[in-house]
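Run log, item B.
One chain of 335 residues. Sequence copied directly from the ordering sheet:
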Amino acid sequence: MSIFFSIKSKALTIKKISTQKYKLGLEKIDIKNVKKNEVIIKVHYSSLNYKDILLCSGNLGLVRKYPHVPGIDAAGVIIKSNSKKFQVGEKVLVVARTMGVSTFGGLSEYVKVPSQWVEKIPKKLSLKKSMIFGTAGFTAQMAIFKLLNKDLKKNSLPILVSGSTGGVGSMAVFMLSKLGYKVSALTSNLKNSLFLKKIGANEIVDIKKFLSAPNMPLLKIRFSGIIDNLGGEIISVGLKQIADDGQIISIGNVLNENINTSLLPLILRGVQITGINAESASLTMRKKIWKEISKVSNYNDLNFLYKECQLNDVINYIEKVKSNKHLGRIIVKIK
């Protein structure tokens, strides 16, 4: 049975103006009634992720109905619950679900979601820190778990991270460095080297030089593994440079969703390509991920990884990300 409820919520909205034109704005939306197994969260913090940028650009494969409220991350306090799992006043988060795509998202003062998407804030994390990591950190940690299944030695060859100045990539660089692994950060702009060194990179790799490698089925081994956020040629070239029994963990397809490569690295070196879908993480895996995130949440250099903005200024920050004028994470203070 539904619980009657009504509240106005200031939110970032996306409106469709024409076939290829979309408009962002801040306005009040209505949040009404709480169905069985739903909760309403007063959002204290959200964040901007790559998927949010796609949503705000009107990506046709994500949202079919407008106006829409993006925001795939949210952390806050439950103000209304129609679920036996959660009580009013509990601090919670929603990360790596379909919130912000299939439903209105967390870039709003309040958000209504199914209780099965909701997790209690881990004891060692604040609402703010949970969003510094958010879906990006969650995904990076899931990728690291997959990569370290191969029992990589910390004194072995470095791990290459592509998309290293983005949300997931910067988190992967930071987390791997805290675990004691050597990290090579792939970048298209060497001016980002100082940022990458600050967050833990041992080596900066110029993407142009990386992609100019000879077109041979096997190349000199340089990396013990790769965490890739870009797809396309990065995987095609990277496969040829991974050590025996190494892995590429494929997270994103910013450059290209297709690859063109030789099978010889897979056959002769036992290299594997493993995909990551954070939304598919089991409850057991989610607990493991948040436990590991909690361990690295108190380092002072975490401050290098993010910028904080207010909801009123979020549109400006979205434009900065679109223009490649931002490094690392952006968290959005809502309350």
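Observations after the first pass:
- The chain has two domains: 3-121+304-333, 135-278.
- The chain has a mean pLDDT of 95.
Flagged for discussion on Thursday.
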